[in-house]
Amino acid sequence: MTLKAYLHDHLAAIAWFFIGLALLCFGLWLDPGQRVRWDTLLYIAVLVTGLAAALLAWHYTRTKKWVKAFTDRQSAGAEALDWPLNPASSHEHAAISEAYNHVLREHRQAQSELIARQQDQKAFIDSWVHEIKVPLAAAGLLQDSLDGQAPEKPLDDLALQLDKINFYVEQVLYYSRLDSFSKDYLLREYDLKPLVDGVIVDQRNSFIDRRISFTLNGHSLTVVTDEKWLRFILGQLVSNALKYTAPGGKITATIQDAKTEATLTIADTGIGIPQDELHRVFEKGFTGTNGRNANQRSTGLGLYLADQLSQKLGHHLTIRSTVGKGTAVTIHFPHLSFYGESGATLTKPDLK
Ligand code: ATP
Ligand code: MG
């Protein structure tokens, strides 16, 4: 709190003080029983004003300290939630501190309850995913065992539906683990080509069902990433490309290396995304015109998760699309620059 702001706040009190002082001096001067000299009156006025100024200065330092306690907490942001106010000496400040600390305590309690409930839900989802995987795997084995004994078409359809269930179960799992990502990743160098191939093989039934061809362009390239999470991101991009491309279309994966980054682009020849929706596709739950019209189940979580996870891995996603021509989503893997290398953020110290 500045002195100017303080004086502004106490302008009325200061004005009343001077009016009171003037009235006092005037009263003394007018009183016929008192023979007060002008200079004595002036001396009293200066003395009282000096005392009042000292009192005001003391009060200003106290108020400044009190206000600082709040501004410090405001600039501390979320950390201020664990920062109660110290006990105050005056009754007025004590009442405010008590109310403030009470709100803090209530907030902390509500937060702890919320976290506990969220963890509970997460644990339930994790165990549910774990449980559902067993019958899913059994259904897969059952379908394999029927190979050659049952007609091919329903078996293929069954495999496709099982793939879809697996895909959505995975999505649920990754969604619930998004917050605990930091505990579950392993950054290493991985070759992009086998990774892409693995994802395509996982979704082979959809490729066959929708009669969509796949081409992989570019040389093999290693990037620093986490295999499991990147596979999931790629899975979401490929599944979108499959979902929003008409039968007979084409999906292309292109690996490229540039000076500052490596990129992997998944492009399709599908229906494309309207320009005014393009900036929203990474939002949680956004399904857009295609999600609603393409006669497909859409939750709008795929690209949101892919984008969030990419950022956690130090990559990022960009998207280009033309309605009627297709969509291309690119994963950017910035090259890591090491100490002393060109492009490094640290400059080498001069050791001469
Ligand atoms: P989910 O992935 O959860 O099953 P979804 O595919 O609808 O549902 P996202 O993957 O997040 O959700 O995609 C968001 C929206 O972006 C989609 O609903 C669709 O409108 C649009 N979209 C994404 N990829 C493509 C694509 N390759 N071609 C056309 N539209 C796309
Ligand atoms: Mg999707």
Automatic annotation (TrEMBL):
First-listed, main subcellular location of the protein, grouped into a coarse class: membrane
Do you know which InterPro entries this protein is assigned to?
BphY/WalK/GraS-like, HATPase_C_sf, HATPase_dom, His_kinase_dom, HisK_dim/P_dom, HisK_dim/P_sf, Sig_transdc_His_kin-like_C
Record domain Histidine kinase: where? 127-337
Coiled coil feature spans? none
**Membrane-spanning residues:** 12-30, 42-60
Asked if the keyword Lyase belongs to this entry, the reply reads no
- Name the EC number(s): 2.7.13.3
Q: Where found?
A: Cell membrane
Q: How does it sit in the membrane?
A: Multi-pass membrane protein
- Give a Gene Ontology cellular component term annotated to this protein: plasma membrane
Which CDD domains did the record assign?
A: HisKA
Name under which the protein is recorded:
histidine kinase
Q: Which GO terms describe its biological process?
A: cellular response to phosphate starvation
Tell me the classification of the organism that encodes this protein.
Answer: Bacteria, Bacillati, Bacillota, Bacilli, Lactobacillales
